[in-house]
Amino acid sequence: MLKFPKVVPWASTEEYMAAADCLYSSDISERKRGVAIVKAWRARGRVPVAIEATASLAEMCVADHEQRHGVTICQLQHMYAMALIRFVNSIVDLEQKGVYAQSVAMLAGRIGMPAWFVELRHAGTHEQLPSLATLRSACAQALLWLRDYYWSKQVRRLPADTMIQVRAGIAEYLSASEARQKAVALVASRSAKHSANSSVLAAAETAMESATTALTSLVARLHADAVRLYVVPVLIESGFLVPSEKRLRAKFPDCKLPAALVEAWSAPFAMFTAPWGETLFYEELLAAMVSALTPDSSELGIFESGDGALSTSHAATLVAWIRWILESHYVPSGGKASTVSIEDLLEGCLRNPSYYSRSVLRVVSDVDPALKRDLKPFVEYMGKALAALVAEEAKASAPPTNSKPLLTVPLKALQEEEALMQRRLDQLFGAGREASQTESMDVDVSAKPAATATSVPEARSTTAAAMALQTEAAANRWSYVPEAAWTQCPIGTLCDGTVPALEWPVWIDSVPLHATTPL
Predict the structure, then answer these.
(1) What are residue 431's phi and psi, to 5 degrees?
(2) In this model, does residue 269 exceed pLDDT 50?
(3) 242 pairs with which residues across the strands?
(4) Model confidence at 404, in pLDDT bands (50, 70, 90)?
């Protein structure tokens, strides 16, 4: 059954765990920061009631510690009582699911909430307020109960050396698997009656079981974000999905994986997809492979490669793995629900043309015949551009001779085809809004003379101050920025690429609701 992702206000598990650490910190400044983080989450979207209750109780503890603005004991009692009442009500209401309403005490007992929390709620609502010492103790106990009831079940911490552990665990499993295969081959080639052969096979089986248990346990401790942060980066390194021995790697242009390599990784893939699902694991793996094969063209330029460029055999093996994933888990358009989606893969290859993105597009064309006709112009254009680049590099490096170049492509024809490909690319991804923006700018420009002509008589009758205001307003109007000055930045960041701080500033809490100024 397809499992839809849940939208949460935090960006990552690391941010979630950082908020928990701040809310339960003994440092008051850290608790303030945790409360500010939760306030920022409220602005982003819906926050779970357990987090809301934790933040309210933590904020109450901070206010009690500072006691600013001359807060009296009676006011603190009312503030504590309200925080505790809302804590009990919000948590208990989650269990109110039947047609007929059940008592708060019954629902609290069902979820394991101490009964005296319910009694304290009743006293704060209908009877005399409990003492301040009782309310302070109840607030501390409520925070501890929330930590056991909610936070400890949600947060799964990862050590700082998680990637090292993942790399070591996978490497140990691969070594044990290889040793077991050698032992099985040794026993098959010789007489199984020899005790030495039997002992070697038994030792290999024991090592294999130990490595399998260790890797399974490690994967079970990782959360979903660890797939992108730790597991996938290790898998695409040399020595894992890409064998260290080059004779075992795939080769261009076929890009076919050896059957032994696929068989060796079938069991680890089953371990990785068991806790996280096939869709999450394989889509993260595809994204990492495409990112490694197609560097960002906005930073390096089209068809350029950085210092850490992959070797040809390494890239061919990654392309072969992409072929295997698509053939095994992708259903072409028009079929049943597919395990993986290729929209991000296609956009990464088309937006960042490279030496290997053309091979990936060919793989997609082979797997999905319906896309072959649409992708054919892009593949052909990349081939011509690469041929022209190779010819230019060969001409620049070769000594001057009278011989003809290996391949020449007319520059004008290449530019015309590039413009055609850009138009098709804009149509494919819905980015063709530049024309409409240009038309709107032309309308504004053409309307200026009429506006100026009608405003001349009025301008003569205005004062110098009004003219200055009009000049300043005209200067501050929005203007069209030339396309050459545009820069790319990830979604959710500022123009310079930095991530904005969305935490709730502490100083906002100290701003009075009704500010007064002396006359």
Answers:
(1) -100, 10
(2) yes
(3) 238
(4) low
Pick from 123, 12, 146: nearest CA to 77: 123
Cα-Cα-Cα-Cα dihedral sign, residues 118, 120, 121, 127: positive
How far is it, in rounded angstroms, from Cα 414 to Cα 421?
10
Structure-token pair, residue 499: 């991530």
Please answer whether residues 359 and 345 qualify as being in contact, where contact means their C-beta atoms are separated by less than 8 angstroms.
no
DSSP letters for 49-60? HHHHHHHHHHHH
Instruction: Reduce the secondary structure of 303-349 to three states and give it as a string.
Output: CCCCCCCCCHHHHHHHHHHHHHHHHHHCCCCCCCCCCCCCHHHHHHH
- Residue predicted with more confidence, 283 or 186: 283
- On whether the CB atoms of residues 363 and 257 are closer than 8 A, the answer is no
In this structure, are residues 41 and 9 in contact, taking their beta carbons and an 8 Å threshold?
yes
* Of the listed ranges 63-72, 118-127, 258-267, 281-290, the one predicted with least confidence: 63-72
Distances (CA, A) of 94 to 49, 104, 155, 395: 9, 11, 21, 73
CA distance 435 to 449: 23
Tell me if 14 sits within 8 A of 225, measured CB to CB: yes
Looking at residue 111, what is its pLDDT? Answer: 84
Share of the chain above pLDDT 70, in %: 75
Task: Give residue-wise pLDDT tens across range 41-97.
Answer: 998 888 999 999 999 999 999 888 887 667 788 888 898 999 999 999 888 888 877
Per DSSP, the residues of 135-158 read: HHHHHHHHHHHHIIIIIHHH----
Q: What angle do CA 112, 116, 117 make, to 5 degrees?
A: 70
Q: Give 54's strand partners.
A: none
- Residues 361 and 290: their CA atoms lie apart, in Å, by 11
Neighbour tally for 238: CB within 10 Å: 15
Given a cut of 90, whether residue 407 has pLDDT beyond it is no
The tokens 């004779």 sit on which residue?
A: 247
Distance separating alpha carbons of residues 36 and 41, to the nearest angstrom: 9
pLDDT at 327: 92
The helix or strand, by DSSP H or E, that contains position 263, with its residue range, turns out to be helix 259-276
**Could you say which DSSP state residue 246 is in?**
G
Rounded to the nearest 5 percent, the helix, strand and coil shares of the chain are 70, 0, 30
- Residue matched to tokens 């979604």: 491
Bridge partners of 238, per DSSP, are 242
